């Protein structure tokens, strides 16, 4: 366990404290708030996230088949959120025990890796949903061609593998080290490797958060313009309403959960590299620690996306909650304006009026 002094002050001195640079000035930080804020918030996210996402996975696996492209993205998003919250109990113990990690270096590496792996997978799956929605509204024929379930499944597999590959260096950076009577599980790395870790983290943030965030904003900007100026024969009002809900919910998740965390973490790491004034660094440290629970809260907000934008999901959940027999699964999309069964065939021509599909399905989820 940590000593009384280390529980009250985190001092930036030449020591194995998480990510502290050996050349930094001596700065005394009172981080007592962290030992209350993080375990309590992570425990709440674990209970709520598991309680919301586990039934979602069950519904997708047993009552919402066959999946369309949107259901495929949503299932993988729910799976990512579930794996994410499963990484939280050890962190709850770690911070409740005042930075003491008794579980070994291997589990420390795996827990930190799982934390960020599923965080960035969630970002990319939300981006996939956004692009799919954009195609359904602005390019419906392309949505028919590229929105097939098997292509969505391959894209989801690529997301898992790409994010895991990008985060492999994190397994080498993250480690444990003794600090008095405690064993620290570094969220960053050893002090002597902190500079390299910051460069690695900046590249990962730009690739796995900056680019997806920009893509999402562009897609939703173009979608909003089309929804407010619908073309003749455009989607019915119910489909446009679902689209607007998706825009609001996904942007809310990005704005509330992901953006504050990444901005404050970047400022915090940069301030430590530049060795700013201790008082300024103390303020930045507090703000950064307070945004970390927000990054976890996305696993509790994502199920709202399924509930408010997926009519099929909502009907099945209502049937199960009321004790009735679930309705027969349907293959129509709940987010795309057009949907196509995987075994259907279409004749693609230059204009939408000339194209023909043997088994079309309307957007009636």
UniProtKB/TrEMBL annotation:
Residues 1-23 are annotated as: Disordered. GO terms for cellular component: plasma membrane. Residues 52-306 form the G-protein coupled receptors family 1 profile domain. One of its GO terms (molecular function) is G protein-coupled purinergic nucleotide receptor activity. InterPro entries: GPCR_Rhodpsn, GPCR_Rhodpsn_7TM, P2Y4. Residues 1-13 have a biased composition (Polar residues). It is a multi-pass membrane protein. It holds the Pfam family 7tm_1. Coiled coil: none annotated. Signal peptide: none annotated. One of its GO terms (biological process) is cellular response to prostaglandin E stimulus. The chain crosses the membrane at residues 40-61, 73-95, 115-135, 151-172, 203-223, 244-263. It is found in: Cell membrane. Keywords: Cell membrane, Disulfide bond, G-protein coupled receptor, Membrane, Receptor, Transducer, Transmembrane, Transmembrane helix. PANTHER family: P2Y PURINOCEPTOR 4, PURINOCEPTOR-RELATED G-PROTEIN COUPLED RECEPTOR. This is P2Y purinoceptor 4. The lineage of its organism: Eukaryota, Metazoa, Chordata, Craniata, Vertebrata. The gene is P2RY4.
